[in-house]
Structures are given as C-alpha cells and as structure tokens.
Amino acid sequence: MIEDGGVLEVVRQLDRACREAGFFYVKGHGVPDSIIKEVRDVTHRFFSLPYEEKLNIKISPEAGYRGYQRVGENITKGVPDMHEAIDCYREVNAGMYGALGKPLEGQNQWPINPPSMKQLMDEYISLCTDLSRKIMRGIALALGAPADGFEGEIAGDPFWVLRIIGYPGASHANGQDKPENDIGCGAHTDYGLLTLVNQDDDITALQVRNLCGEWILAPPIPGTFVCNIGDMLKILSNGLYESTLHRVINFSPNYRVCVAYFYETNFEAAAEPLDACVKRTGGTKKFERAIYGEHLVSKVQTNFVKDESDS
Prior knowledge:
The chain is of the alpha+beta class.
C-alpha cells in the first residue's frame, strides 16, 4: 500500500504512460543539466572529426561489437540506417557470462579526441543507472509488485548499453521526396527494460507509433529525458506495457545528436511474466520466458553490414 500521496500520483502517471504510450518525459530527475548538455557537446565534437580519425575506434566482432560505426553500417530490418554511432556496453571480462556472453567480451573503445569523452560518459552512465533504477521502482509499484520487484535476480546487477548517435542533416538534393534510406533509424523496439534519450534541444526527429498506428513526434523538451520501455518489460508485465515502435527521421538540414542509455535486466536473467501482472491480465501467461543475454546477442550479431572497403 502506497501511503505517500505524491508517490501515489507519480505511480499512477507512470502506469498510464506505460499502458497508453510506452513513452514519457522525465523531469526533476536529478541529473545536472550541465552534464546532459556537455554529453551532447562532446558527441558533436567527436562526429565532426575526419572520418579517418573516427575509424581509430572502429567497431568489429573482435572488439565485442564496441566502437565507431559509419553512416549506413547499422541496419534495421535489412535497411541501412542513416546515422553514425559509437556503441558501448557494460564491459564483459573473459568467461564472465560463459559462452552466452562471449560475443560481447571486451572493453569499450573511446577516442583520444575529445580527451574528456571517456571520463564524462562514465559519469553519465552512472547517473543514468541510478535514475533508471528509481524509475523501475516506480514501475514495479505501478504493476502491483513491491518497489524492489525488479531487483534481485531480474535486475539487481543490471546490464547496460550506451549508443552515442549522430544523424546527418537532410539532403537538399532529395527535395520533398524522401527515399526510404533517408530514415536515420528504422522502426524498432528496444531490447531491455528502459531507455533514456538525451537529444538535441532544437531538432525534432524522434517519432513514436501510437495505439492507433499513427506516427507522432516526440519533440525535445529541455531538461528532460524521453523515456521508453523495452522488450523485457513487455514480457515481465505480461503485455500490460507494450515496447513501442519508434524511429528517427531528421528532416532538419542540421546535424543532430542523440545519446541513448539502455537500462537492462541482469545479463543472464530469465524474464517471464510477473505473478501480479498475470493476475491483472486474466491469469494466463502470454509470453514464454526469455534470456536477456540471448535476446541481446541475437540482435547485435545481425545489426551490422560489413564494409568491404575498410577490410
């Protein structure tokens, strides 16, 4: 029973947002605005470097799928995405998760320039992890579970993913007729529990599909994160909360950056519908159990197209 009226109201708002949209804005989160902005500024500085310099931290299977990827190297449902990125994961030591974690074994690759990038992103990841844990406690209460219902074996030792993404400005040559490959990131759902999106304040490019199947814009609101729920939370909630389709199309002529932090379950967690959620949805489990690490690795290993010119 939640006795604090303020907490109860937040829990109600969380429940409604997760049921009706799967996306919501988070304000009053405690992450300093100065850090949120600095993260974007450093990201702009990195992507403005010459291509050859960015290739010093090129992504590869040998690097545990960590590092820089060129525009068009990431693919969504077979279509190249018009963005470049640095992919980072919670670092995985050899043997840490057995054969399951072997493809992601390695250390994150950080550029020498900008020199502050690694230290800043490490601090940012720590802040986002703490914030995500707090949000998940609210979501646990919204689902009728104890506040720590998503900790322990589910997410007591959470894995995380960070994607530092740059979207080139729209091509003037394309005019009004935008071809499919102008999509910065194709329609997809996220893999884990929660995503915190830190996007440029002055460009609206993120689109979310609502319950009616319409694409609606998610414009940036300064000082907030856009938050969405992922596939593992969909399973744990027995479908009460949907992992919503979203995509990115940058119609602006200006370069746009976005830093997406993904808060996941434990790498080896077996996600299956919570008892409280099964009761709320008619008493039948709608999803089979899923091992998060298997789900992540299967996605990561099919997300990239090899660039023969760089081999």
